[in-house]
């Protein structure tokens, strides 16, 4: 008799666990395990942006018209602010309802880039003009830079340097002259944009291989900090992933475009959103569109 009671109790526990599992698998609201609604089911959009001073943010707001009547940044105050490309990608990868933006050259399998106005982001699209969301990568310096810094810049703009650029971005010097190792020694400090940093590190590695007595130190921050560091003379070359402002140019720095890069609008890999119009992106980042159900 006792064994029959134990068997009945065991069976009731199994049934209860099975019912619980079914409820758990069908969350009722279509939410993910962290409570966020995936884009295909509607739900509040998680807007992820970059920090003030980011060249990518500046270029993004200009290109999509995320601006107020005074041409000032009009990014919604509800946006989550991230301070680098890597943090942006990690944030979007971890939030099924999110949308953000990064340098095209930084896209990897952790996030999904979406088409803009029917065109997929690609280096080829930037080069032929079909993908319109593009901006320059600049290095900036004041007159009188050191000979070794000038030599490094010469390498960047050479055929060999532009070949490095072309591996992930869009080169800007199709008929550049070949570079010959200079035999110089010393140190070059390059500082600024987190978007430019990855290609600058590859350029530094290639240059150092030809000039083993030179150390190129790449310091990551943001575009505004990079430009200001060049103005202040605390670095040899500043990195900016946007056009320079008149207020910066008036302080004696000159930009050199070393590459062109697209800006990719990214969503979580679990999102069903594959294509957005420019107006939809603008609406999302200004706060006019707040729910994924508003995206046709």
UniProtKB/TrEMBL annotation:
Residues 40-160, 179-294 form the PBP domain. Keywords: Signal. Residues 1-21 form the signal peptide. Transmembrane segments: none annotated. It comes from the Bacteria. Gene3D superfamilies: Periplasmic binding protein-like II. This is Phosphate ABC transporter substrate-binding protein.
